[in-house]
């Protein structure tokens, strides 16, 4: 039996030389109709010359004659057939796409932080991946990369599906998309010296009422405008034109103007060398991603008791975790690069210092032997670990054996410098 996903893949492959938008619309219309109507075909049916004619007969003549005009209606029909728990997940992919592959790990963490994934015995991540597979089977999502174990690593949305997804996002007020063409940013200078622009002499303060914001601007333009969103729960930022941030930005307006955030993705910002202590004000955060030439994470991070994902994109060297990190018992994903070290003494690491919910961790720098084992055994449910093991110059030869990693149940990537 062939699923609608296989039908679409083979049809587009057979007609890839045409490459027309009309052909793409017709393909999507056909496949969406197959999905909605529950059409399934055997291998013998596929080889028949009348195979596609049988599908076409199931479609109205309006779709065949004017596929581009009707494509949205067919996609809308597919969307209406989605279970409610899948609709939010699908619309979120439209925000994350931005003309590139969508990492499954990232989308899963967003879904969990947003509360889209119910808690079951299977675990949040397994349920979220099952939701994604469901969307793939419905031909709304395309697999772009697989892992060595066969699981989906990255996915994409067809251009027409992406257009539909963004339109539906706006119609349902699921996300507000902010770009360079929106006021007041359309009046901002297009040079790299936007920070010299006197914003307040040209415009009134920017305020947003949307529950979720997806912002695609120059970093300097967002910082200069100092927007606010007292009702905003999610703030996802994409740098539109400027390259890797070389200078730090002051984002202190976030703590004061977006106090109820659950999701804050500022990974492409450079915060400088100091991680803001005020981050502890955002006690509702479930997802936090920041970047910069950071040296350490403040102890106030422990105030984020509901945090499930912490991502710190270090631009140089080692970042030190505070001993208070062990208090965030809800933490499931902790990822710091280039590498991270713990700041705690043996006496401080008591029996209660356990991150029981943590399932993925990168990239800790651990000395071989008992020190590494002492840390790792306090991560009892760890599934994925990417780390650096080194030989401590202060340790005896007996302490430099490779640590036991019995707790890591799935994937592990190790690096032991010579």
Automatic annotation (TrEMBL):
GO molecular function, one term: ATP binding
GO CC annotations on file: cytoplasm
Keywords assigned by UniProt, alphabetized: ATP-binding, Cytoplasm, Hypersensitive response, Nucleotide-binding, Plant defense, Repeat
TM stretches of this protein: none
InterPro entries in the cross-refs: Disease_R_plants, LRR_dom_sf, LRR_R13L4/SHOC2-like, WH-like_DNA-bd_sf, WHD_DRP
Domain Disease resistance protein winged helix: 98-164
Sequence ranges assigned to domain Disease resistance R13L4/SHOC-2-like LRR in this UniProt record: 256-397
Coiled-coil annotated spans: none
Domain of life of the source: Eukaryota
Entries under Pfam families matching the protein: LRR_14, WHD_DRP
SUPFAM superfamilies: L domain-like
One GO biological process term: defense response to virus
Locations listed in the record: Cytoplasm
Role played: Confers resistance to late blight (Phytophthora infestans) races carrying the avirulence gene Avr1. Resistance proteins guard the plant against pathogens that contain an appropriate avirulence protein via an indirect interaction with this avirulence protein. That triggers a defense system including the hypersensitive response, which restricts the pathogen growth.
Protein name stated in the entry: Late blight resistance protein homolog R1B-17
Source organism: Coffea arabica
Lineage of origin: Eukaryota, Viridiplantae, Streptophyta, Embryophyta, Tracheophyta
């Amino acid at each position: 039996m062939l699923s609608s996903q296989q039908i679409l893949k083979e049809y587009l492959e057979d007609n890839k030389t045409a490459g027309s938008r009309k052909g793409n619309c017709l393909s999507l219309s056909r496949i969406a109709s197959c999905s909605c109507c529950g059409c399934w075909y055997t291998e013998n049916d596929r080889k028949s010359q009348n195979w596609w004619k049988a599908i076409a007969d199931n479609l109205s003549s309006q779709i065949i004659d004017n596929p581009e005009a009707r494509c949205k209606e067919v996609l809308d029909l597919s969307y209406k057939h989605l279970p409610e728990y899948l609709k939010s997940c699908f619309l979120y992919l439209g925000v994350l796409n931005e003309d590139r592959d969508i990492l499954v790990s990232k989308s899963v963490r967003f879904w969990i932080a947003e509360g889209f994934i119910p808690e079951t015995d299977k675990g949040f991540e397994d349920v979220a991946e099952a939701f994604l597979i469901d969307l793939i089977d419905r031909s709304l999502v395309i697999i772009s990369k697989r892992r060595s174990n066969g699981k989906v690593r990255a996915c994409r949305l067809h251009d027409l599906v992406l257009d539909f997804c963004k339109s539906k996002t706006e119609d349902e007020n699921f996300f507000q998309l902010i770009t360079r063409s929106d006021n007041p940013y359309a009046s901002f200078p297009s040079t790299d010296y936007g920070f010299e622009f006197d914003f307040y002499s040209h415009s009134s303060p920017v305020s947003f009422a949307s529950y979720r914001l997806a912002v695609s601007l120059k970093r300097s333009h967002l910082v200069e405008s100092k927007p606010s969103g007292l009702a905003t729960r999610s703030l996802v930022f994409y740098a539109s034109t400027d390259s890797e941030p070389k200078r730090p930005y002051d984002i202190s307006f976030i703590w004061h103007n977006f106090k109820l955030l659950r999701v804050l993705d500022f990974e492409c910002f450079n915060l400088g060398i100091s991680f803001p202590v005020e981050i502890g004000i955002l006690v509702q955060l479930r997802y936090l991603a920041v970047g910069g030439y950071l040296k350490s994470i403040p102890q106030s991070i422990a105030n984020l008791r509901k945090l499930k994902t912490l991502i710190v994109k270090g631009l140089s060297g080692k970042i030190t975790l505070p001993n208070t990190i062990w208090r965030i018992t809800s933490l499931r994903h902790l990822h710091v690069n280039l590498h991270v070290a713990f700041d705690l003494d043996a006496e401080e690491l008591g029996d209660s210092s356990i991150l029981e919910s943590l399932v993925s961790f990168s990239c800790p720098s651990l000395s071989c032997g008992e020190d590494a084992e002492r840390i790792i055994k306090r991560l009892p449910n760890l599934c994925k670990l990417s780390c650096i093991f080194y030989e401590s110059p202060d340790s005896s030869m007996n302490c430099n054996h490779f640590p036991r990693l019995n707790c890591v149940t799935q994937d592990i990537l190790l690096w032991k410098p010579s």
